[in-house]
Amino acid sequence: LTGAQDGSVRMFEWTRPQQLVCFRQAGNARVTRMYFNSQGNKAIHPLQCGVADGEGFLSIWQVNQTTSNPKPYLSWQCHSKTTSDFAFITSSSLVATSGQSNDNRNVCLWDTLVSSGNSLIHAFTCHDHGATVLQYAPKHQLLISGGRKGYICVFDIRQRQILYTFQAHESAVKALALDPAEDYFVTGSAE
Q1: What PANTHER family does the record tag this protein with (predicted)?
Q2: ∠ at Cα 148 (107, 84), nearest 5°?
Q3: What one-character DSSP code corresponds to residue 128?
């Protein structure tokens, strides 16, 4: 799956020289993050891919499309300025997003099974100037976010509250990684 500054999103297969599908054409907002939903399977829930963009939108497609330019089955504006990252939670019915919004609701939880007008479950007011990255810890039901000012926030998804906030860097947090046992996480910054 590839995404570009010109907004295009294409899917390739290793053994084929041409693209399989073009999910978005050039001329859209720049792609900020893309993921496959790892919980997808062919029998019950088809494999999905999600694309966040620089205008605040998150779009989700079913991967097993037969058309060359399929439409997303979900597309909604999650943040008023940009959606920088997202995470599929609990077999894709719940999605977390990070980004920048005018009202500082920069980390949000969304339910994909309800109408787009009612899909926002909870919005956390955090990260002045926006949240840049997001990491989900499924064993502990925690969400970890990094912000433009170097701060890290740790959220309890079940209780929908911020547990910890601390400054990890002097500049924007650009990467988060979690070890498989969920004992540690690592941050990387613009500095």
Answers
A1: DMX-LIKE PROTEIN 2 (PTHR13950:SF13), RABCONNECTIN-RELATED (PTHR13950)
A2: 50
A3: T
Q: Which of 106, 94, 166 has the alpha carbon at shortest distance from 132?
A: 106
Instruction: Please give the model's pTM, rounded to 2 decimal places.
Output: 0.90
Residues 6+ away with beta carbon under 8 Å from 79:
56, 97, 99, 100, 101, 105, 106, 108
Angstrom distance (rounded) from CA 140 to CA 106: 22
**CA-to-CA separations, 143 to 96, 139, 154, 155, in angstroms, rounded:** 8, 11, 6, 5
- Domains within the chain, CATH numbers bracketed: 2-189 (2.130.10.10)
Give the C-alpha separation, 65 to 10, whole Å: 12
